[in-house]
């Protein structure tokens, strides 16, 4: 059994190295060109129509929750340990230049996430309770007529989500035990009860919770970084130059940093960008499909903003780690994933380390919350609404099982099951990209009902 697990781990490491990164990066590049880099051309308009409309009460169309609630629900899944620990590891192994390539991949990922969100809105439908549901399984079935692929996606996603929920809850328990000495059993029970109460209320309750929790946790963490930047404002220009210069030049060893080749810079930058924003993985469109909107493209703009905000969270970690200089210290080699906590600790003492631990807890607990919802939607697609409501209790129970370290053997299959949903999803995005181009052009160019109308209002 041990030999089999090692073989699975080796295959997963290879698969999520160059092969999967190439698939996702090439997809983002292709879609960016096909959509004529709208994410750059209309960036001001996108921000104005999303973040600029957070407090707007204007009803634009039909849906189950508000566009902002859909955004925060999707963000709850993408914002997680990867934004803190993942970025720290990328800098340690790839150097500061990895941050630049993370930015580049994020820009390409905007086109991918826009594409899957627009398709999800176009092919969404109402369930028995009148709520809107959508996602890759729906545009695979209705867009291409490939229900068999929708079934494949849903089944693979169920397996992936079950593993992912346990891994995330174990991360919560381990973090709280290490930082505050709280028992994994108590953390698991508390997390299970919290998620259960919220999820049983459906997407409307999830939206109400995430629209409050996600901004608070993001602002809390970002505020700490801003204070560090202000305290070391004289270092900011040199840090930015370091990121840009080392993106194209191999990095020599400095202190505890072992140096990085250009290949390592690209590998870690691409990996962090791909893993963090989840573009092409088919997750966020499930949340965005529930939004109230008058056009699929308009909600697609919110998904672009989602990538921007996720990348800002990663950038915040990068600036804290680089400005503090902790990434070149000897202690960095002991546990590269803790660089953010060490950076905060250098400036704020135990309070800073506690802030990072609290941020990690909030990031991960909201991730688990939305993952349970995603899992329920897969069961609904396959077996109907009644089965979906029953399945939520199985996934809620998985939170406790994962927290106490149960079923760890399943975790080794997490990356493989993730690849089983990414590959078919990316294939369908490419095949249906013409429809997305047409919807984008309709919104921005055709008759002025949308974009020109908004410009006139502004």
UniProtKB/TrEMBL annotation:
It is a multi-pass membrane protein. This is Amino acid carrier protein. GO terms for cellular component: plasma membrane. It comes from Acetomicrobium hydrogeniformans ATCC BAA-1850. The lineage of its organism: Bacteria, Thermotogati, Synergistota, Synergistia, Synergistales. GO terms for molecular function: amino acid:sodium symporter activity. It is found in: Cell membrane. Its main location: membrane. The keyword Membrane applies. Keywords: Cell membrane, Membrane, Symport, Transmembrane, Transmembrane helix, Transport. The chain crosses the membrane at residues 13-33, 144-167, 179-201, 213-233, 239-266, 307-327, 347-373, 393-410, 416-433. Belongs to the alanine or glycine:cation symporter (AGCS) (TC 2.A.25) family. It holds the Pfam family Na_Ala_symp.
